[in-house]
Specification:
By secondary structure, the chain is α+β, with helices and mostly antiparallel strands. It has five helices and four strands; from the N terminus they run βαββαβααα. The chain has a single domain, classed as 2-Layer Sandwich (Alpha-Beta Plaits). β2 and β3 form a beta hairpin. The termini are far apart.
């Protein structure tokens, strides 16, 4: 792939099962995700969230699909978190494409999750992300 040049920025969001507060140390989780991302050749540009969800801004290499990247990140973090307590991520995930011109805005958004969630819940935030991205959803099933 010597002559392949890509810019695949993706804002990924996923929550714990039933949005329970299962992440005891979010900052430590972000560091762990960074290690997994490096190992899998995924560039992690930002990580943030709270005790019940995770936001990532990643740059996908041309050799890995989004589904595979999320599978690797969720699977490895789930195994790691299960070493100390009972843990599970929600079944799915959300991913929003990000243009290079919006990269800093998304990084800032992810970096300020604590302040953000002092004002509104994950559920409110998530529905807003879906609406802003024009992703159709059925409110009866969006949270499983």
């Amino acid at each position: 792939m010597a002559h392949t040049h890509t810019c695949n920025l993706v804002h990924c969001v996923f929550s714990t099962k039933d949005r329970a507060n299962l992440i005891p140390d979010p900052e430590r989780l972000w560091q762990y995700v960074g290690g997994i991302a490096r190992q899998k050749h995924i560039l992690l540009l930002a990580a943030g969230g709270t005790a019940n969800h995770l936001h990532l801004l990643i740059s996908l290499p041309p050799t890995i699909t989004l589904a595979k990247a999320v599978q690797e990140l969720k699977g490895n973090t789930s195994r790691w978190l299960n070493e100390t307590s009972r843990f599970a991520w929600q079944e799915g995930y959300s991913a929003f494409s990000v243009s290079q011109s919006q990269r800093k805005t998304v990084v800032d958004y992810i970096d300020h999750q604590a302040e953000h969630h002092a004002k509104w819940s994950f559920e409110q935030e998530f529905l807003t992300l879906l609406k802003k991205s024009g992703i159709p959803y059925d409110p009866r099933f969006v949270f499983g």
